[in-house]
């Protein structure tokens, strides 16, 4: 297991190496998808047993990844 950002880890044996919340099998993209679909922090925390800090870590990680994304206009 390797921590790639605070509270975010990858492990080839967990969710095929996708980034997950540390100590869970909850993928970062699931958290983002649920938030974008209108789920509240409180609903996420209850449904998936994650903390507010875990949700914020997922958002920070996504922002960090997107900030390094390079888009080429053709």
UniProtKB/TrEMBL annotation:
Record Pfam families: DUF433 (PF04255)
Annotated SUPFAM superfamilies: Homeodomain-like (SSF46689)
Origin: domain of life: Bacteria
Descriptive protein name: Uncharacterized conserved protein, DUF433 family
Organism, scientific name: Desulfoscipio geothermicus DSM 3669
Lineage: Bacteria, Bacillati, Bacillota, Clostridia, Eubacteriales
């Amino acid at each position: 297991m390797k921590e790639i950002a605070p509270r975010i880890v990858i492990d080839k044996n967990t969710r095929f190496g996708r980034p997950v919340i540390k100590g869970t099998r909850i993928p970062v993209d699931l958290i983002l998808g649920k938030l974008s679909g209108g789920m509240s922090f409180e609903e996420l925390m209850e449904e998936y047993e994650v903390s507010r800090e875990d949700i914020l870590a997922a958002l920070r990680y996504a922002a960090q990844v997107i900030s390094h994304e390079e888009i080429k206009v053709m």
